[in-house]
Specification:
Chain lengths: 109, 116
């Protein structure tokens, strides 16, 4: 079973700053199988990025994903007030199975 | 537009069976994709519970496999979750979702509390 570890646990930033979130896998993951989600309080997660770097429909271009193998990154180029939330990475594994990282909270500094 | 809506009791007694249904609109379950359940205990992260393929094949999280059953009713375009022998640790918001390599559509979630 592949384990996803996200860091940092909490990121304290100001609006307008750049956010860099990390997702590290315990084994190599196909880029096609890596996705990122945003979750705000009281809401379901929303798909942001799939295939490691493709933005989902309607996602602003300030969100970008990159990485390969065991190291993946979600970058928010300039934080907007609505971007303060919890972010999860997710991988699809053979079996099939779906696993999530533990999440990174982006909070207002 | 694909929409998913969870329904079921919000309170379940310990040792009983949790039962939820997810009604899908805007897409026919029998046309493809996996359909699954994810849960989130209060203040914690996301856990995949299990999924059912449009053909009826099921796949479960090994940590829950002995207690989980997912089924599909294509005539009603809905799928269901049963989780047996629940304890307080099963208290969570339960989401249904459409899955392939990623989860692109989610229900709004329903809180299920396990308490006597």
């Amino acid at each position: 079973e592949i384990v996803l570890t996200q860091s940092p646990g909490t990121l304290s930033l100001s609006p307008g700053e750049r956010a860099t979130l990390s997702c590290r896998a315990s084994q190599s993951v196909s880029s096609s199988y890596l996705a990122w989600y945003q979750q705000k309080p009281g809401q379901a997660p929303r798909l942001l990025i799939y295939g490691a770097s493709s933005r989902a429909t309607g996602i602003p271009d300030r969100f970008s994903g990159s990485g390969s193998g065991t190291d993946f990154t979600l970058t928010i180029s300039r934080l907007e007030p609505e971007d303060f939330a919890v972010y999860y990475c997710q991988q699809y594994g053979s079996s099939p199975a779906w696993t999530f990282g533990q999440g990174t909270k982006v909070e207002i500094k | 537009q694909v929409q998913l809506q969870e329904s079921g009791p919000g309170l379940v007694k310990p040792s009983e069976t949790l039962s939820l249904t997810c009604a899908v609109s805007g897409y026919s379950i029998s046309s493809g994709y996996y359909w699954g359940w994810i849960r989130q205990p209060p203040g914690k992260g996301l856990e995949w519970i299990g999924s059912i393929y449009h053909s009826g094949s099921t796949y479960y999280n090994p940590s829950l496999k002995s207690r989980v059953t997912i089924s599909v009713d294509t005539s009603k375009n809905q799928f269901s979750l049963k989780l047996s022998s629940v304890t307080a640790a099963d208290t969570a918001v339960y989401y249904c979702a459409r899955l392939l390599l990623r989860l692109d559509y989610w229900g709004q979630g329903t809180l299920v509390t396990v308490s006597s």
